[in-house]
Design goal:
This protein is of the alpha+beta class and 110 residues long. It contains one helix and seven strands. Strands 1, 2, 3, 4, 5, 6 and 7 form a seven-stranded antiparallel β-sheet that branches. The longest helix has 21 residues. The radius of gyration is 13 Å and the shape is globular. The two termini are 21 Å apart.
């Protein structure tokens, strides 16, 4: 999840949240793996398109039943960021835009 979550960072997950929005970082099962990626689009009712911030590909359509919870804070080397409050809440769309640009650039230049 670079550039936002560094390898080895500690994350706090809220497993009670069941409403997810574009820009949220979620924990989910995909291809028998537990992953942490960002929601970059809502495809249909209770289905989302997810992608790691620095990945060149998307994970595909993920049903909300496969999403276990939402990341609410990140501890990168002692610096704790509460991503469920401002100003991060407003900045999440910049990360979504970054993800779409990264995806487009990967498709155009590969």
């Amino acid at each position: 999840m670079l550039p936002f979550i560094s390898p080895g960072a500690l994350v706090q997950i809220d497993f009670s949240i069941r409403k997810f929005y574009i820009g949220d970082i979620v924990v989910f099962y995909h291809n028998k793996q537990l992953l942490i990626h960002r929601i970059i689009a809502k495809s249909t009712y209770k289905a989302f398109l997810l992608k790691g911030d620095n990945n060149g590909t998307v994970d595909g359509i993920i049903q909300s039943k496969n999403i276990l919870g939402k990341i609410i804070s990140v501890n990168n080397s002692g610096r704790v960021i509460n991503i469920s409050t401002s100003p991060y809440k407003e900045l999440r769309y910049l990360f979504v835009l970054y993800s779409w640009i990264k995806l487009l650039a990967t498709k155009l230049f590969s």
